[in-house]
C-alpha cells in the first residue's frame, strides 16, 4: 500500500523534505539559493525540483525584486498553496465521513452522511465523491481536487501488511474505485485505528507520542499510537481491546470467544443489561437521559462496566506505557457516570509508579476522527507531506503567512 | 541519550548510510566513483568521507589495479574491518554480562561473572572493563578497543526519556563511569527490555518486527519490540507485564499493588507455592528436577501458573498483535510443564482470528540476552551502524568477503 521504504527511497524523501522545508522557512528561493542551502548536487537538486514542480507541490515564479545586474529577472521557486491537499474518508458500517486538509495541514472541511449497511461499494464511492465535492467551495481554503496528493481511507475490519482475513495482494474495493475516480494513491487502514491516529494528532491526545484509544460503540475496539506512529501489529490485528477476556466462561462474543470486554461494554451489551435491570432505553441517547436523571440502575450498571474497562486499561498501561488514554464512541456520551469508574479502576490496577502519569480523556473529534486519521495516514506516508501539523518541526519553523490569516 | 533526530541529522545519517552501503556492496571505491553513485555534491560527499575516515569507520588505500592512464594510482576508500565495534554490558542485580560485535555485526565474544548485589558501581565498572578486556584476543575477530563505536548498557529499574523515578538530566553512574573509562558514548536502557531486543535480533525471535518478550525470574517483566524497534513507553514504563493484576485483592506485590502476575509467577512465588503444596525445592534447578521426575504437585502448580500467564499474554496479543512471544528467565527452564499450559490459555483467550498467527517460543540467548540487546541499542542509535544484522538489507546486499571466512 505504501511506497517502498528502502534506504534510497528514504534518502530521496529526505531530500524532498529538505527542499520543501527550506521553501517553508525562507519563502521563494532561486535554484541557486536552494542549491547553496541544501548541500545537494546540481543534478540531484534539479531532479528533485522537477518532480516537485510536476507534482504541483512547488510552482515557479518570476522574482518581484529588481535583478541585481542586467538580464532577465531570476526565476524563483515557491510552495504551491493549493497543492498537497489530502483527503480522508471513513467508510463506516452505516455512514460515510470525509475530511480534507491543505498544504499547511489545516483542516479545510469535513462532511458526513448516513447510509444503509448494505450499500454497494460503487454507491459508497459515489457518495464519497459527492461529499468530497461539497468541500470544494470558492473561498481561500477551498479544495482543488486537481492538486490532490493522496487519499487516506478507513474501512471496517482487519487491514494490515499481512492481513489475516484477506489476500493482501487483492486490493480493497474502496481502494480500486477511489483510485479510478481520483487518479491518486489510496492508503488504507482499519477505521478505528485511524480514529486513534486522528485523536493523537488533532484531537484529545494532540501531540501525544504514545496514545491508547478505546472506542465504545456497537463494537469495542481501538488503536495504539506508538512513538508517534500508528501501530498495526504483525498481522494488522492490533487494537482489539474489545476481545480481551474479562469474564472467563462469560457470554459468547461475535469473535467466537466468550466473556470478551465487548460482551460487557458494547452498546448492545449495556442496553441489554440496563433493560435486564428494569431500566428503559432503546438507544444511547435514552440511556444518557436516564443517567442525567440520576437513574440508580443506570449508574450502578455503568459503574460496573467502567470498572471492567479500567482493569483492562490498567493491564495495557503496564504493558505499553502510554501518556494518554482516549475514550471515544457513543457510550462515552454517558460521561462521568462511566469515565469516573474507569478512572478509579485504572488507578487501582495500574502499577503505583505509573499512577498520575497517564491521563484519561474523552475523545473530541466525534464521528470524523476516522476521516482525519485517514489524512494523517497520508501525511505520514507521503514523501511530500510527512510532518505532523503543529508538531515540533512546524512549531519551530512556522509557515510565514500563517500569521496573516 | 541518543543523538538528536531532527530532519537534518536524519539526512546526514542517511548520507552516511548511503556511502557505507555502497562500500559494503562494491568494496573499495575511489572518491570519484563514490560521487557518481551517491548523487551527493562533492562538498557534501567529502565532508561525509572526512568524518567517516576520522571516526575510523572507513580507511583509505592505494588501488592495487594499474592506473588506466599515467600518473599515480588512484586512492580508494574501503570499510575498516576493525572499526565500528560495539560493546553491550548488562549490569544485572547480581551478575555482569558483556558481549561484543564487529563491523559485520558478528558477535565476537561474550562473558559473564556473578557478584554480590551490593557491589559498588566503581567496582562493577572495573569488573566490566576486565570482562571486556578478556574479549580482546589476537584472532581475526578480536576486538580492538581503540575502534569502539559506543557502548550499550542495560541496568535494573526504570529508564526512559522521561524516567519516572529519576531526574533524566542526571546520568546513571554506569553511564558516567563507562564514558570516563572508554571515552565513547554510552547508551542506557532497562536490561529486561534490552533482553527483548536481543531475542528479537539474535535470538528466539530473530528477524521479528513485532515481538513480546516475557521474563520469569526473581521479578516478572519483559519488553516489546514494535515495528522493529524497542518500545520504551511515554515514561520508560513499558513491559511491566509482572504488574498486571491477575488476582484482584490477591497477595501484596513489591510494586505496592496486589494480585499482580509477579505474585503468582516469580521464582519466589512459585517455590513458595510448591512448598505450600508439600513439595521440596530450594531453587529453580530443584524444581526442574521435581518436574522431570513427574512430581504431580509441581505439574499441577505450573499448570495453574501457566494458565495465568497465558491469559495475560492473550490480552496483550489482542491489543498489540505480535508475531512472536518469547518466554525467558530461569522459570522457563521448567519447559513444557509451564509452556504448554501457557500455550493452551493463550489459544483459549486470544481472538479466534489471531490463533495460530502468534508463535510462542522459549528464549535462546540465556543470560547474555541483555548484553546483546545493549549492542542492538548501539546499532540502532549509531549513525554508523544502524542496520540489523541479517536483516533484509544485509541479506540482499551481502558483505563481499563474508564468503571467504
Automatic annotation (TrEMBL), chains A, B:
Which domain of life does the UniProt lineage start with? Bacteria
Fetch the PROSITE patterns from UniProt.
Answer: ROK (PS01125)
A Pfam family of the record is: ROK
GO molecular function, a single term: kinase activity
- Keyword NADP assigned: no
What's in the keyword line of the UniProt record?
A: Kinase, Transferase
What InterPro entries does its record include? ATPase_NBD, ROK, ROK_cs, WH-like_DNA-bd_sf, WH_DNA-bd_sf
Q: Which family does it belong to?
A: Belongs to the ROK (NagC/XylR) family.
The protein here is known as Putative NBD/HSP70 family sugar kinase
Give the species: Nonomuraea rubra
